[in-house]
Amino acid sequence: MSEYEGIVKMLRFFVQMKNFGYVDRIGNALNPEPVEVTLHEALRAFRSVRESAPVDESGRRYVEKDGKKIPVPGIPTEEEIRTFLDDVRSDIGVAKRVATLALAYPSKKESGGDE
Amino acid sequence: MFLSVGVRFEANVEALNMVETAGNYSKHRRVPYLVEEDGKLKTVYVPALSGESLAHAYQEHLVREALGLGLSVCDDCRRNEFYKSMNKVHLKKKVNPIPDDPRDIEIAIVRSCVVEDVGGFLYAEKPPVRRSSAFQVSYALPVKSVALFATSEPQLHARHAQMDTSSKKGNASEQMIYYVETGTALYGFTFNLDLDAIGVSAITSEPILDENELKIRREAAMRALFRMLSSAQFGAKLSRFFPVGGITEVAVAVTEHPFVVTSPIYDDYIARTERRLKVLEGLGENYLFTVATGEKVPEEALKEAVDYLREQGAF
Question: Any idea what the CATH number is for the domain that residue A46 is in?
């Protein structure tokens, strides 16, 4: 699943923000269309949040939620998105696995963004 | 008596139901929708209004109509904050000390608030007391045959601030752009009102109020629906996104027992509703069915229903 790491990190960011809508819709999708639409919406929202997020001393983007600083990861690459959507078209179970990983604790501490 | 209304309305460039804001982007509610195209079913995402949004608007109108008729409405509901006696803090404003018997709790709430009588409540303490809403409302969804023409599109807006160099902080911009996602569609929704449930205990099925009070409450419930549809005061962002369009069709059925009009998302909903009612008539049930499609305006159809209910002694 490491090939979808960018998507997992993005969805995990929304989970940390207590916005479960995207991860639930991707995880519960029964066919590829809801996954495509949800990913589009998630990327659109993520770009908006990311571009208005402040940058800390170490150059990482973050947002504050309930007094905690939540790092904003990088935007998933075009190649990763394409591969994910192609894989979802052939096996919808891929979407559920990605959503499940996003709900889990990361195996190592994640750094902020790509800056 | 049971009232069921199917409503179709055209709304262009509306922001009636916004769901979240991400950065400078506020999104319209959207739902997956099954449509048939070239003999195949497909899922499309269409703009929608939640039943919760419509129900909130209805209850706001109910507050006004109830107060206008001199009926009791609790302080929370008067402020259009529909907590519905959800815990001890809110219930104590109506009855103090709080009774131990669920029946007494229900009686106290129903007596002191028309909105909680008609709209139901859930007192989530010990003992829990639940009352189902006497009215039901669906999501408003695009009409099936034209659902593929429905759109949701972000509109760009700008907000300006006048700043000189002394008041400017950091990278603050004098102009902030933001996007509001707007929907455009021909929507349909269903509204039901069980007049027999108003003022009647959900626990014992016995009337809680006297007949005169029951009749005035039923009338308030009908007036609130009339006002909501007639004024188009439902949904959010009306101040700058009042939908361009209006109600195109209304179908109203009044029956002795629960009966729901066929959903207005289908093009043949009026004919199908009529056929279904004819079957009921054969089983000995009286009804009124009236529609406003072309010549007749929605208010005329609703007035017919009000007059019929009055004739039947509902109020």
Answer: 1.20.120.1610
Classify residue A109: in a domain, yes or no: no
pLDDT (tens digit, 9 = 90+) per residue, A35-49? Answer: 999 999 999 999 999
Confidence of residue B36 (pLDDT cuts 50, 70, 90): confident
d(CA B243, CA A47): 29
User: How far is Cα B197 from Cα B106, in angstroms, rounded to an integer?
Assistant: 13
A114 found inside a domain: no
Distance CA A114, CA B124 (A): 47
Domain-located, residue A111 = no
Per the CB < 8 Å rule, is A52 touching B24? yes
Identify which of A21, A37, A48 has the shortest CB distance to residue B24.
A48
The residue type at B15 = A
| Structural domain span for residue A55 | 4-104
B19 close to B261: Cβ distance less than 8 angstroms: no
Which of A34, A37, A48 lies closest to B22 in CB terms? Answer: A48
Chain A environment of B24 (Cβ under 8 Å): 48, 52
Interface list for A 4-43 with B (CB within 8 A): 19, 21, 31, 33-34, 37, 41
Domain ranges of chain B: 2-21+27-35+44-67+134-142+183-312
Q: Residue B132 gets which letter from DSSP?
A: -
Name the strand (E) or helix (H) holding A69: strand A68-71
Q: Do A33 and B20 touch (CB under 8 A)?
A: no
B164-174 pLDDT, tens digit each: 766 666 666 67
Distance set, CA A98 to CA A104, B235, B240 (Å): 10, 35, 40
Contact between A51 and B23 using a beta-carbon 8 Å cutoff = yes
Residue A34 lies in a domain: yes
What one-letter code names the amino acid at B50?
A: S
Helices (H), B69-210: 75-78, 88-91, 102-112, 114-119
| Cα–Cα distance, B264 to B241 (Å, whole number) | 24
What does pTM read for this prediction? 0.91
Contact at CB, B23 and A47, closer than 8 angstroms? yes
Counting the structural domains of chain A, the total is 1
